[in-house]
Amino acid sequence: MNIAVVGTGYVGLVTGACFAEMGNTVTCVDVDSKKIEGLKQGKLPIYEPGLDNIVINNYNTGRLLFTTSLPDAMTQADMLFIAVGTPPGEDGSADLKYVLAVAKEIGQNLDRYSIIVDKSTVPVGTADKVAAIIQAELDARGVQIEFDVVSNPEFLKEGAAVDDFMSPDRIVVGTASARAQERMADLYAPFVRNHPRTLFMGVRDAEMTKYAANAMLATKISFMNEIANLCERLGVDVENVRLGIGSDQRIGFHFIYSGCGYGGSCFPKDVKALIQMANKIDFDPKLLNAVEARNNAQKHRLFEKIVESFGTDLTGKTFAVWGLAFKPGTDDMREAPSKVLIERLIQAGAKIKAYDPVAMKVARDEFPAKFFDEGSLALAEGQYEAAIDADALVLVTEWKPFRHPDFKALKRLLAQPIIFDGRNQYDPKQMKRDGFSYVGIGR
Ligand code: UDX
Question: How many A from CA of 237 to the centre of ligand 1?
Answer without folding.
Answer: 23
